[in-house]
Structures are given as C-alpha cells and as structure tokens.
C-alpha cells in the first residue's frame, strides 16, 4: 500500500496535480516541479529512495532541478540541490536534517549499498566519492564517464574514478571537473574529493559531500597545498563557463515562483556567486526562492522571495563589491595563519567574521576587519577569558576554533572536531576522524574511518612513544595536546631546514615558532627573518644557535607544543 501511495503521489507531482500550498506568512510556496515540462526537463530520481529521504527538502530540491543536457552543468546543479544535507547516526536520519550527526548515514550510502553493491542495506562509510557517483547518476551521466566510485582516487580500479588526472599546477579546472585533496600535503595520500563548481580569479569554488559531515560549498586558491590535483571526466557534452553570470541577461522584469528563462539563470548564478547555493537551471522554484529570501534577509530587505528592481540593484551592488559575501559557514574560508587586526582584509577575515557569527555575533561577512569586527573580537575575548585587545592572534584563534567544536574548516587543516573526550579502542565519531587525520599527517599509514580500531590504537601508541608519552593507545589530554600541535595544516619537516629552503615544511616551522611567541609570516620561504627567529628559539632553549632547524631543534619545538 505504501508503494501504491508513493506512486500516486509521484504521478500527482509530475502532472502538477497537487494543489499549491501557502506558507504561514501567506506567501505562496513554489511548486516543486516546473509546470511547463515542454520547456524544461525536470530531474527524476533513478532508484527507489528511502521514505526518510523522499520526505525531505533535499529530495524536493532534486526533483526541481531542470536537466540541460550539458553534462558538466547538470552534475554541478544536482550536487548544488543537496547543499545543506547532513549525515545522520541511523537509517531513520537519511533525510539529512540531523545537523550534529557523525555516523556516515546518508541517502547516498543507502543508494550505493543497495544499487551498486546490490546488497539489502546501505553502505554507510566515508561518502565524498559516493556522493559524486550518486549525483552523476541523477544527472543521467553514463557510468563510462563517471563511474560508481567509492574512493577519493583516480585510476583503473573500479572503485576509483576513471578520469584523466592532472596534478596541481598543470591544469586549469572547469565546471564539472573533480578536485582531489591531500589535506596534509604528503603527496602520497588521497584524502577527499569534490566537484568543481567554477573558477574565478584563481580561486576554485567547490561542492563537496562529507565535508564537515555534510554537503557544502567551499573555496580555495587553485594553488592550495591541500589540492593534490584535478580529475577530468570524458564528458560527451559540455559548455564552458556555464555558471558565469555574464552568460545570462540581467532581468528587466520582476521574477518570482514559476518564472523561467535566461534572466532566472542570471539570478541563480548571482546568488551562487554571492554564497547562496542554488542550481543554475532557469527555473525559479522553491530552492531559488529560499536562497533569495536568505539574501534579502542578510541585506535587510523585505524577505518576500521576489526579485524586483530594489532586490536586483542590491544583488548587482553585492556582486560589484567582490561577491561571495553571504556564505555563513566558516568552512567556506581558509583558517587564518596570520594575526588579524583592524585594517586586515581577505578571506581569512571572512573566516573570522563567519566564525564569530556562529558564536552569536552579528557581522557582515565582507572580508574587511573594521571597527565592528574589532568590537566582536573583544566581545569573544571577554566571553572566553582572554585579553580583550580586539586582535585575533594565535590564542584567540585557537579559542574560537575550540568554541566552534571543530578545526574551523577551510584551507588550514582537518574538517573534524577536536576531541573533548578521551578516545579509546571501540569508539566512533567525527572526533575519531580528527585523531586519525592527525596521525595520518604525522606520517602514520591511516584510513580516516571514524572508528577507533586496532590500526588506530597501534599507530597512536607509536606516536606516543615518539613524543615521550605513556604508550597506552588512549588519546587523553596530554596526547591530544601533542596531536593538536601537528594538526595545523603543514607537514612536520623530515629534512634539515636552513636559509634558502622553501616549502610547506618551512611553513610548519614558521607557524610553530609563531605559536611559541617568535612571530613570523608563514610564507614557506626560509629567509633572514626565519633564521633570526630560529636562533632566538635556540638561545632560549640551550641549543647551538646556528639558525638551522635540524633534528634537535625540531624535537625541541615539538616538545614545546
């Protein structure tokens, strides 16, 4: 009976047979499926979804997407329809609404287990690759172009992506390409994979599953050390710059629910570039309305979900001021590695502003550290018992990250929360992923699964022995402190560093010295300033003051962290 009822409901939705509903405010809600199917091609799911997912906003977002036949654009639009979906802790949470879930339970894993592996239950493990495969199937992209991969890897293995791989620095990515991440720049690990939405001003904007346990958009420099390289599927059909605002005509009419056309694409592309993710498909549906209302609210406009002259002007002004101003998740921006103060500008200032908003402040996320941002930094410092100087240095940054309950996301480290409990064998959760990621960065062969098994315990014991800790295989406060010291985003050097050296391990040295009070810019270049700070550290710690970071100096720095 449930199947019959679901079939009837599906037929009603496809034919527009359900009466429209009104919101509590009296504003009409958009229908979930375009009324003019002759002009648009609404997506339909390619398998039997779970009842939990089929009742969710993400399912409705999916069904609202209009497929264009441009495979690159369709992949990104399907993925964008899922932004906000969060993993759960059980099958009953496959609707994506549990914002604190850590158990890898997703609709995408359910699909992979039942349809790809042909088993009776889902496959509830790390899901960044499975999300891309799921999105490709809903976008009607053949498996010969994007196969049903479950690992964030490129190659001929059937569970890797069968795409052409280009190392970072050898290729400029395009909409619909894949981006492979090596979070700790080891050049041998494949940690994560996402989808390229678009590239602008040498920054890549991505849609990623299993980033901070959810589907989100993020941005990076295309030269970021976290990016290992790019995967290019052999698309049969694709357009260039499909998400570029300039491709579409600026509206000269009022746009609202049910509107279609290139001017709707302009609105959608503009919202996307401002940090309000919506598919760019030319149909003004419920998701477009929802994102437009968020923008209106952010700008202090009447939140009616209608794009008239005033709203259009506000969007154009926001775009001219730099774009991507509305993204509210700190993980969209890089965690600062420098001290931020009044007058600072940049995406790391946006991280600070977004992070403060998460903690209860109310700031415009504009990347400019002005008096308002300073006042909120002082507010946070007073709240957390820090010196209220209005400057975001290492101590303030660390306390904000701790208060967020995560590493802060973005371009500086792990996407998982720093543990606040003692971790031991048998436990599971995102804080276990943090532990595994930190051990992986420290050079231990680890799978980041979120389950504390025998491999994690043995690697942890080896790490503890290397740091002079009790090798009990339990991650308590002392072990956590040592791990946090190496979890900041750069690899611990394995070579001797001296004047003239460059690289991410030099950035580790510079960042580590800064944390210890010997302030440096982490630019990855070992120059005279870095040498002087190394000498100062050596003199303070009874070492030979030769300005070279060899094994003894490196060990002394690690011992202080």
Description:
It is built from 18 helices and six strands. With 561 residues, the protein is α+β, with helices and mostly antiparallel strands. Among the domains are: 75 residues, Orthogonal Bundle (Muramoyl-pentapeptide Carboxypeptidase, domain 1), CATH 1.10.101.10; 56 residues, Muramoyl-pentapeptide Carboxypeptidase, domain 1; 57 residues, PGBD-like superfamily/PGBD (Muramoyl-pentapeptide Carboxypeptidase, domain 1), CATH 1.10.101. The protein has a six-stranded antiparallel sheet. The N terminus is likely disordered.
* Overall body shape: globular
The CATH class of the domain at 330-404, by name, is Mainly Alpha
State which percent range the strand residues make up: 5-15%
Task: Give the strand tally.
Answer: 6
CATH architecture of the domain at 330-404: Orthogonal Bundle
Along the chain, the helix and strand elements come as: HHHHHHEEEEEEHHHHHHHHHHHH
Return Rg in Å: 24 Å
In whole angstroms, how far apart are the ends?
62 Å
Q: Estimate percent helicity.
A: 25-40%
Mean pLDDT: 82
Order of strands in the sheet with most strands? 1-6-2-3-4-5
Number of helices, where a helix is a run of at least 4 consecutive DSSP H or I residues: 18
